[in-house]
What we know:
Elements: E1 11-13, E2 27-29, E3 32-35, H1 60-84, E4 89-92, H2 94-99, H3 101-109, E5 113-116, H4 130-148, E6 154-155, H5 166-172, E7 177-178, E8 188-192, E9 195-199, H6 208-214, H7 220-236, E10 241-243, E11 246-248, H8 255-270, E12 274-276, H9 279-290
Parallel strand pairs: 2-10, 2-12, 3-4, 3-11, 4-5, 6-7, 7-9
Antiparallel strand pairs: 1-8, 8-9
Amino acid sequence: xxxxSVHAGGIERRLPEDxxxxxxxxxxxxxxxxxxxxxxGHWPGIGPMGNPLKPGFPDLNAxxxxxxxxxxxxxxxxxxxxxxxxxxxxMVCGIMAERHPEIVRRIADEGHDIVAHSYAMDVIPIYLSxxxxxxxxxxxxxxxxxxxxQRPTGWISPRGTPxxxxxxxxxxxxxxxxxxxxxxxxxYCVDFPAGTVVSFSSNMECNDLPLYMRYGNPPKVMLEIxxxxxxxxxxxxxxxxxxxxTIHSHVFGRPLGMAVFNRMIEIAKxxxxxxxxxxxxAAKHVLSLMR
Length: 291
């Protein structure tokens, strides 16, 4: 049986040991916001009540919880980022660009990095044929570009779960990077016949969905994780390091979660050893060094 791989058919190239982020900083923080939607008849697999309904019944509780994202949460996140003059990496589903183009246009107009996040959260590459997956990539890109006039250069699949062919298809479709891996601390290049794509591993340690929704931790735990990471990499790491504090507009887009997100931004902004950037800017930096 062929070995399964996130980068089937590609050749990986890692960064040099002395790699530094743009401006020469050793530490980087990428603030991420997920602006997600589900196809008609679908809803988040994790709802605020925790216990799933019997199969075949619509979970209007989970559906209503998700709708908070475009009704309130995304605006609170954008206002917080604007207050601090921070540009975030914003994962956008195609269905949100289709149904709420004015919001996606605002995200782009305010200078944030828009990342394609599949058409909807229930459209997961591993379930699709190659033809279906390529069509989903193109549909998502077209809807985002129609909404804001910008073509995304990065892709992250729902659940961060690709198919073995996703990276190759993204290279063929002209993407510069993807976030569908969990296997490294730093980005690295993957060469395919069609071109090079940067694999920019995600980290789940500082993410509201598992921490708060799945495991029921209070919001402040996410702040403690952020502070513990900073303390550790400053004391013991010598190479480049990074963290991606990630919130979802329907989860920590609420006041209690936003208080934590706001505090993390304050801490990062006050530090003189942290580069606050976007993933697409970092990917361009990596490509410039590795060509």
